[in-house]
Amino acid sequence: MILVGLTIIEAGLLAWLFVALVDLGSLLWLEIVLGILLGLIISVAHRIFFLFIMAVINNHSKPQKKFNMFYFRCVCSAFMIITRVHYKVEGLENFDYSRSYLFIGNHKSNEDFMYTTVPLKKLKLGFLAKMEVLDSFFGARFLKQIDGVPLNRSNDKEGAKSIIKVIDNIKKGTSMMIFPEGLRTDRSTNKMLEGHAGSFKVALKAKCPIVPVSMIGTQNIMKNAPFRKTKVKVIFHKPLEYEEFKDLSTIEIEEKVRNIINSVIPN
To answer: Residue 2: pLDDT band by 50, 70, 90 thresholds?
Structure first.
C-alpha cells in the first residue's frame, strides 16, 4: 500500500506540473488527461528503474541481509499490485517465528513463492527453485539474496547437493520452501498432485517441522492480469512436528502433507 500511495502522489505532482507548464488553450480537460497519463507512465517507469538498479547493487551483498529481504518483498508486493492480486492469508499464528521450518505448498504458478514471501516477513526464508530461475536477470539475483537453492533435475549428483544445501540452511536457522509437484503441476485445478517424495528427506534429515501451505487461485493470475483482479488465498496449516512423521517413509509423508493441503482446496 505504501508503494501505491507513493506512486499516486508522484503521478499527481507530475500531472500538476504538466498542466502548469503546458497551455492548450481552452482544452483544459485534455491537459489534465495527458498530465495524468504522463505522470503515471513516468512514476511507474521510475519504480521499475529503481528495482533494476537495486537488483544490480544487491547482487554483490551477502544473502539474508534485512534490506535485501525488505527489497525483495517490496518487489513481490509491487508485482501483486500490478497484476491486481487481492490475497488473504490465514494461519500465521500456527507457528513459532523463532524456529525454522520446511514449508511445503501446492504449485500452480511461477509466482507462487511471492505469496509466501510477503506474509512471512518475520522469518528468514529461502526456496528450492528450478535451475531455470538462474536464466532470469531478477531471478538469479533474488535467489542469491534470499539463500535460495537452485535444483538441477537432470543431474542426480547435483540434485543431491542441492538437497544437502537446503538441509544445511534449515539447521542454520533459515526456513525453506519447497514445491514438490515441480514439473508435474496441473494448472487446471487448485488441488496438489502427487509430488516428488524425495523432497521430504529434508525434514527427516534436518529433524524440522513441516508446514503444509494451501494456495488457492494463483493459477488464474496471469490469465486475468492486468484487467481483472484475482482473489488468492494462502493458508498456513499447523506444523507437523518431527515426532509425528519420523517413522514414516517419504512416500507416506508426501501423501499425509498432500492430503492436508488439499483438505481446504475446493475441487
So the answer is: very low
- Name the DSSP letter for residue 207: T
| Domains of the chain by residue range | 2-53, 86-262
pLDDT in tens, 195-222: 888 889 999 999 999 999 999 988 888 8
Cα separation values, 192 from 4, 183, 259, Å: 33, 12, 9
Topology adopted by domain 86-262: Glycerol-3-phosphate (1)-acyltransferase (3.40.1130)
Q: 10 Å Cβ neighbour count for 50?
A: 13
* More confidently predicted of 169 and 65: 169
| Residues whose CB falls within 8 Å of the CB of residue 190, separated by 6 or more in sequence, listed in order | 106, 108, 215, 216, 217, 219, 265, 266
Residue type, 187: R
Please answer whether residues 189 and 267 qualify as being in contact, where contact means their C-beta atoms are separated by less than 8 angstroms.
Answer: yes
Q: Comparing C-alpha atoms, which of 246, 180, 168 is closest to residue 209?
A: 246
- SS3 state of residue 134: helix
Using CA atoms, how far apart are residues 204 and 166, in angstroms rounded to an integer? 12
What is the spatial distance between Cα 189 and Cα 225, in angstroms, rounded to a whole number? 19
3-class DSSP assignment, residue 75? helix
> Can you read off the three cell numbers belonging to residue 49?
528503474
pTM of the model: 0.75
Tell me the residue type at 219: Q
Put residue 64 in one of left, alpha, beta given phi > 0 → left and psi -120 to 50 → alpha. Answer: left
Look-up of cell digits 515441480 = 182
